[in-house]
What we know:
Blueprint: H1 2-16, H2 18-38, H3 50-64, E1 71-72, E2 75-76, H4 83-95, H5 99-124, H6 135-150, H7 153-158, H8 165-205, H9 209-222, H10 240-248
Antiparallel strand pairs: 1-2
Helix pairs in contact: 2-5, 2-6, 3-4, 4-5, 5-6, 5-8
Amino acid sequence: MSLDRHIGALNHYLEKNPGVAWSVSAIWVLTIGGLAFFWNLGSTGLVDETEPLFAEAARQMTVTGDWVTPYFNSETRFDKPPLIYWLMAIAYRIVGVNEWGARLPSAIAAMALVGMGFYLLYRFGTTATHATSTSGQRWLAALIGSAAIALNPLFLIWGRTGVSDMLLSACIGLALMAFFCGYVEQGNQKAEGRGQGAEVGNGESGVGSGEVEEMQAEGSTQSSGPQSSVFGYSKFFPSAFEFNSKLKT
């Protein structure tokens, strides 16, 4: 009972003070990401043969002033898109030509993924629906989930290596997360519009609120299939068969 009382008090405090909650969350993300990706980032030399290729190609951009064509040992290097070289070269201009500058774009990309993961988990990361989940549950899911992302061994490795892998992962991951947020929000707005229209229609036709709740309960029971609870929002996602049929048509 004591634990439930403390959790209830925490929920009440977070709901009344959202600014404090977001400030603490920002400090949490910066701390966990800073320790995971930026702490002693340049303490070891360039590893393997791939990291020196990226680092040198970016260095030659700063030396030659040619930011269009990457070079390595005076030979063109078109193995990777130039964005990673541009970011490394900019980092060299800021922190100097060293291991820290070569790995800084990867560390920032990893930090961005952790931050977006925190936001996504706060918005949709509980087993209950967003309407019934408490602020404390959502904050806890975001705190634990963002730490799990940052401390993932692969994240730790590629977020501290001066190659293009983490930057590519961040671009794809951020795009998918943004799409998910927009898709679910659009589904929410449509559902709210349908709900308001149903309430107006029920009021005109004389259907009672008890009957409406009964029909909603029946609908939720019928929709409890394998896709019935993906963060509580799976009702907005078409099934795989519906999606395939749309593609065929």
